[in-house]
Design brief:
Blueprint lengths: L1 H6 L13 H11 L5 E4 L4 H4 L3 H15 L4 E7 L10 H4 L5 E10 L2 E12 L2 E7 L13 H21 L6 E5 L6 H6 L11 E6 L20 H4 L3 H4 L11 H8 L2 E4 L2 H10 L3 H4 L6 E2 L6 H11 L4 H13 L10 E5 L8 H14 L5 E5 L7 H16 L4 E3 L8 H7 L2 E4 L9 H6 L5 E4 L4 H4 L12 E4 L4 H16 L1 H13 L4 H15 L25
Parallel strand pairs: 1-2, 1-6, 2-5, 6-7, 7-8, 8-9, 10-11, 10-13, 11-12, 13-14, 14-15
Antiparallel strand pairs: 3-4, 4-5
Helix pairs in contact: 4-22, 14-17, 15-16, 15-20
């Protein structure tokens, strides 16, 4: 389309400059390049992922780099990773190196952070290290300590960019831990350094417990001495209690905000305590999560086997001590954190009833660790240990251990289970879908955008939905799934539908990339800098 516009360009001077259409197109692309895009994230990929945020940012940035964009990610280098290892960056295959230090002043103190850099899949990675401030992802602590962590990380991220003379076209912040980044620019802490930068905030989860609310202790007031921002940016004066809210700050100070599914966007606009300020942005963006299908298929093949039954055999042999596969028994699997959001209690409450109903001809795997300091997780852990002990051929869980067989489960399970009480976007459903595995899910957020009830009359749908988040609705969904499994022809169609419904990360990346361009108002065509008069198509250039 750009080339067609240029071919209509009317020569106005005698001399003719001939260039190929390909050369013209290449110069147009170069002239309209977005420029550096810097993601600031509290978790990332294999180094510090806790939930979907770390996965989404990792895969999106790799996808953007694959499109030729100049991509950076700034994240904390935690003293210990999720496995409790220290010095994990030094051991990483990417070969990270220590670069220098950045110095940040906050709350009357000076903090010196080590900068460690590397490049993975075309993405420039920057990890900021401070042993006391960043001991582990999302550490517990006093209100002052948590706020200090946020302040230092947000300031240090911008300080690093200044030191490198790296001025982004877009800074993409992610969730509450990065919520003050845009504010330090808007409040003038860095002068006009970032005056041409668009600040773009992604809410991966905006439930009240995930806003990052900080409750000041007695005598701490609004904690202005720590965050050093105008109070109104971080505290809503009309709320009954003073709460320092980094998500409020991100909403007020960012140029644009987005979230991870269209349904969740509508949910938070309608129900979030921050809805009034969210609505101040006229065109917030949302797009579903996805996964890199080609790479994930290779991973499934390498780790799980060539097909569903091969992977299922591995599951039954390893977790239920079978000698060989028994395909008359359907395997239902959950993979994820044992936290209230994920609805694991529904699995625990329903499991014994289902095992007895089907006379042991059902197998349930719950893969994921439980933090026993959390009452919810501790309760689930006790239930899972009871079930695994009483029904070893039908129920498996190891709540004290990390679960490492996600790929085998994604391909080998007959059904994935996602009974999340809320799920803004969700990636796990697509990890099941790419293995051809249908999903049982509660109708919420991004799940209702991607999981659809299987219809026997039309053979449409890729799973089974809970209309209510309770034990009865979960049991009913499992019963519908079980009934479909017994009809091998219907179940075959269901698996085919599931695979076809996988959201490819390549499509997701393109949509986010278009939104970043739109957000910096790239709405016009920049003509080549050559004094172009006429374009002639050089022989062979069309093939190129």
């Amino acid at each position: 389309g750009y080339c067609k516009k240029l071919l209509k360009y009317k020569p106005k001077i005698p001399s003719l400059l001939k260039i190929s259409a390909v050369e013209a197109a290449e110069e147009i692309v170069t002239a309209n390049k977005l420029g550096p895009v810097v993601f600031v994230a509290p978790e990332l990929g294999r180094w510090s992922t806790v939930g979907g945020l770390g996965v989404m940012v990792d895969e999106l940035t790799i996808g953007l780099a694959g499109l030729g964009e100049d991509i950076y990610v700034i994240s904390p280098y935690y003293n210990k990773n999720r496995k409790g290892e220290v010095g994990y960056l030094a051991k990483d295959q990417a070969g990270f190196t220590y670069k220098n230090n950045v110095i940040v002043k906050a709350a009357g103190a000076t903090y010196e952070l080590g900068v460690h850099v590397g490049k993975v899949s075309g993405v420039n990675l920057v990890f900021l290290h401070h042993e006391q401030l960043f001991p582990a992802p999302y550490p517990e602590g006093t209100a002052a300590m948590v706020l200090r962590q946020i302040v230092v990380f947000c300031k240090a991220s911008l300080e690093f960019l200044c030191a490198e003379k790296l001025i982004p076209s877009v800074v993409v912040t992610n969730d509450w831990f990065t919520g003050l980044v845009a504010a330090y620019h808007k409040a003038g802490a860095f002068g006009d350094t970032f005056k041409n930068t668009t600040f773009f905030h992604i809410f991966h989860n905006l439930q009240e417990a995930y806003e990052g609310r900080i409750y000041p202790g007695p005598g701490e007031g609004t904690m202005d001495g720590i965050h050093q921002l105008p109070t109104w940016m971080v505290v809503d004066p009309y709320w009954a209690v003073h709460i320092v809210n980094p998500s409020r700050c991100a909403t007020l100070c960012s140029d644009q905000w987005a979230t991870v599914s269209p349904s969740y966007l509508q949910e938070i606009l309608a129900t979030s305590p921050l809805s009034s300020i969210l609505k101040s942005h006229p065109k917030p963006f949302a797009y579903p999560n996805g996964i890199p299908v080609k790479a994930r298929l290779k991973k499934l093949h390498d780790q799980a086997g060539p097909d569903h039954l091969t992977a299922k055999k591995k599951l039954q042999q390893k977790y239920f001590k079978f000698d060989d596969i028994d395909d008359t028994i359907p395997v239902f699997a959950f993979v994820g954190r044992i936290v209230a959001q994920k609805g694991v209690n529904l699995i625990c409450e329903a499991a014994e009833h289902l095992i007895n109903k089907y006379n042991g001809k059902i197998q349930i795997i719950v893969g994921g660790p439980a933090n026993r300091r959390d009452p919810y997780a501790a309760s689930c852990a006790v239930s899972m240990e009871y079930l695994a002990g009483k029904y070893p051929k039908s129920f498996w869980a190891a709540p004290n251990d990390f679960f490492l067989d996600g790929s085998i489960v994604n391909l080998g399970a007959d059904f994935g289970m996602m009974p999340s009480a809320f799920e803004p976007g969700g990636i796990v459903q697509h990890e099941f879908f790419v293995g051809g595995t249908p999903v049982i899910a509660f109708k919420t957020g991004g799940l209702k955008d991607s999981v659809f009830e299987f219809q026997w009359d039309t053979n449409e749908g890729n799973g089974f939905l809970l209309d209510a988040h309770n034990r009865g609705a979960f049991i009913y969904a499992v019963e519908r799934a079980y009934g479909t499994y017994l009809d091998k022809q219907k179940y075959k169609i269901l698996r085919e539908n599931s695979f076809k419904s996988t959201m490819d990360g390549a499509k997701v990346t393109r949509e986010w990339c278009k939104e970043f361009y739109r957000s910096v108002s790239y709405t016009h065509l920049t003509l080549p800098t050559i004094p172009l008069v006429q374009i002639s198509v050089v022989a062979g250039s069309a093939k190129k």
